[in-house]
Amino acid sequence: MAKPSLRLILAVLFVVAPHLHRPSEALRDPEIVVRPSNAMVLPLVHTSANASMHQSHLDYRRHLQRVSSHAEIARMRLFDDLLTNGYYTTRLYIGTPPQEFALIVDSGSTVTYVPCSTCEQCGNHQDPRFQPDESSTYQPVKCNIDCTCDRDKEQCIYERQYAEMSSSSGVLGDDIVSFGNESVLKPQRAVFGCENTETGDLFSQHADGIMGLGRGQLSIMDQLVDKGVISDSFSLCYGGMDIGGGAMVLGGITPPADMVFSRSDPGRSPYYNIELKEIHVAGKPLQLNPRVFDGKHGTVLDSGTTYAYLPELAFVAFKEAIMKKLHSLKQIRGPDPNYNDICFSGGGSDVSQISKNFPDVDMVFGNGQKLSLTPENYLFRHSKVQGAYCLGVFQNGKDPTTLLGGIIVRNTFVTYDRENQTIGFWKTNCSQLWERLHLPMAPSPAPSPSYDEIPSLGPAPAFPPSALQNSILPGEFRVGLITFDMFLSIKYPDLVPHVAELAKLIADELEISENQVHLMNFTSEGNGSFVKWGIYPARSAGFISNTNASSIIFRLTEHRVRLPDNYGSYNLIEWKVEPAVKRAWLQQHIFAVVIGVVVTVFLCLLASVAIWHLRRRKQQILGTYRPVDAAVPEQELQLQPL
């Protein structure tokens, strides 16, 4: 079983208005293994009455702001995969000039934070740490009566501790936040955490930090809504099985006509909840009291949790109903012998065909509307047996809360309409979401290098390889060259002796042949070096296949190229794809032509030699022949003496 992501906060986050207890946060991390035996425990601190009154005041103030302002949206791409990586990330740009970060999208967290350059204990994450001194618009949040201050009483701080003993702490800063090159929403000032210390799994994760979408004054959503620049709504769309990636929209959109809704009561739980009343398997309802889904925090929908966790009675009924429909499949052991995963072989390798072997599931809400789930919404692939699948739904220990993680909403556009206190669900192909929703698009607020029309692929955030291949590289397009510029934080003289070694390392990281990587340009810039690389087709090919090109681009843009520490850190500045040059017939067949000419000349020479030998032989034969009547010189008969 893949490692699920599930985390519990123990300490209250002290930020603005410390006299108000903000809702606790369920932060998630891919390195934390939470099995069904480890019951999900949600917040230890509930929202107080004063906090509720304060929230009502904020809601009223936001309503007035929205009436008088033109709300926009930020459309952003999601990367990674929930079951492979344990989370989805998006790209956020902080500062002037913008510094890029890969942040875990978490609807259960209410603070956005990134590692700070001053961090004394931070892990080696995907991108370089935030450099406050390099941003002309950065401002520290100065110590005041409404926040917890550092020891010197100069700056506001935050501190968070989690059940698995990981933690994050740092200072609060204020800077320009940009949302990428597909966002209509202009850059906005926002408060965020600048980490000075990470421990545990926060230290070891690949992603840089967290983008908090929960309810709370430090949430990026709350800050944007308070400014009146977006309406009080956001949406997430997770890619399907074997695809990953997805999309996110900050702000309200016109819902599709066939979107189904459930009421979401912020007073019921500090988390985003829905009114789940029934679960149907293959059209038949589970024989359960609807109140089973309303225990403790009710039914919670959380983007940062990997799988689904049901109360004991609901889980047993669900498991038995599923197994009754799997007559032709064989139950097998799970991929990890340490856990009792429920898995079945013989389901078929094609995701589009698994519905033939596994039943559909329906979730019925309090208003009677129904969300239909396909098998990819409750199954995950067995990592060791081809064509085998395991249940991605588990018992939530003895906890009566129902927790629905990302697996439930794969290939589902989910709208968290906080203003109207509803959550909407729309089944769709998340890799084609922009085309289906017809959302507006604008140039990037973050500066980006210019690039050619066909097809310039950088530096915009990349698709997952499969989506990149289908969406950006047309089927008829043949890639002849991929170039990319990188800035390395190593001095020019120190790098020169190791360029050949660096080329080999890059080839290994991109999983291509070493002879395909060529150094194109190499210049010094301050204490660093600019290097331009070219990736050419393999010697035996005239072009790079779209599949391989997509994989290369994805690895580059996702910072999947890991270099040893002696090369310092690197930034991808620009990348570009050039088409294969269409050569003339002679250029395309020059090798065959040369071989043909050589063979022809050789055969001609061989024939000439053969003819010469034949003529010479003939002459020799003619030279010894005499006609019968030809005159023959007399010869003296010599007698030997007796």
- How far the N terminus sits from the C terminus, by CA atoms, comes to 118 Å
Please report the total strand number as a whole number: 31
Q: Which structural class matches the secondary elements?
A: alpha+beta
Mean pLDDT: 78
Percent helix among the residues?
Answer: 10-25%
Highlighted features:
eight-stranded mixed β-sheet, six-stranded antiparallel β-sheet, 642 residues, alpha+beta
Give structural notes.
The chain contains twelve helices and 31 strands. The chain is an alpha+beta fold and 642 residues long. The strands form six sheets. Strands 2, 3, 4, 5, 6, 7, 8 and 9 form an eight-stranded mixed beta sheet that branches. Strands 1-11-10-26-27-12 form a six-stranded antiparallel beta sheet, with no helix packed on it. Strands 13-16-25-17-24 form a five-stranded mixed beta sheet. Helix 7 (465-471) packs across helix 10. The longest helix has 34 residues, at 590-623.
